[in-house]
Specification:
Order of helices and strands: HHHHHHHHHH
Shape: extended
Number of helices: 10
Mean pLDDT: 76
Strand content: under 5%
Largest sheet: none
Structural class: mainly alpha
Radius of gyration: 26 Å
């Protein structure tokens, strides 16, 4: 059995507008800062949450909520045929294009899973755990994208310079870029670990697994480590900027000297 809406009615922008209105209404009614959710809405960042066992229940809830919000006629049609509609029935009854469209909305804006879970009455600790998992996935996605971009850039530079008189210099410059990028990625990974620890210790306090004194001591240790890493990241970023500014100035001066020599030769 397949039911659904025609492909011509799959309007991503219209869907985002409807979702934004829903988010604003919910946040206003519950005294929540809507910007926390809306800032990332349709942010063009996609992570794969469809087949993640940890997120399965949240994904299914978000899928059901989005279909009910955006295309209620789909659920009504299936309900009229088979009675009560659960995720499995709904997903199997809809065509692949429709399922892919709804899934893409969730994967573009995975924070919606947290919002719908909050609406469903999930506990604060459960929501925090969900945010921690999403943050870890997004951080991993960002790191992979950054690593791929940096590798592509430096490898492309090496390939372009191969066999030319500038090959040694370009290879050395690319090595410096890779070194700085590697250090930055390492620090960002460690910062992500500290952020995860903060969420876990907050959840432990809420569940009475640790005392307020233990929480305070752990938080002080975590924040000290995090601040140290932030200082290191700022220093590495500054060093990287200074290094490439120096290289740029050297190349500009070399170009000026070459042009001066050429102009002098032309004058004879």
């Amino acid at each position: 059995m397949t039911t659904g809406v025609t492909s011509t009615s799959y309007d991503y922008n219209a869907a985002m507008d409807n979702i934004q209105a829903e988010v604003e209404a919910y946040c206003e009614a519950n005294g929540i800062n809507a910007e926390d959710y809306l800032s990332n809405l349709d942010g063009n960042l996609t992570i794969n949450v469809f087949d993640n066992p940890t997120l399965a229940a949240y994904f299914q809830l978000a899928y059901m909520q989005l279909v009910e919000m955006l295309y209620p006629e789909v659920i009504n049609s299936i309900e009229a045929e088979v009675g009560a509609v659960d995720f499995a029935t709904l997903y199997e009854s809809c065509d692949e294009e429709f399922n892919a469209f709804i899934t893409s909305i969730i994967q573009d804006d995975p924070e919606l899973m947290a919002l719908f879970s909050m609406q469903a009455g999930s506990s604060d600790s459960e929501i925090q755990a969900l945010y921690a998992e999403l943050a870890k996935m997004i951080s991993s996605s960002d790191s992979e994208a950054d690593d791929m971009g940096a590798t592509f850039y430096t490898d492309q530079a090496r390939d372009s310079a191969a066999g030319t008189s500038h090959e040694d210099f370009v290879n050395w410059l690319a090595d410096q870029e890779d070194m700085f990028t590697s250090v930055e990625m390492s620090i960002l990974d460690q910062l992500s670990t500290y952020d995860q620890a903060i969420l876990e210790i907050k959840a432990a306090l809420e569940n009475d697994d640790i005392s307020a004194e233990e929480f305070q001591a752990e938080m002080e240790n975590i924040m000290f480590g995090r601040e140290t890493l932030m200082t290191m990241l700022q220093q590495v970023t500054a060093q990287k900027s200074q290094f490439f500014e120096m290289i740029s100035e050297m190349m500009d001066k070399a170009t000026e000297m070459q042009n001066s020599i050429i102009n002098n030769m032309r004058s004879y």
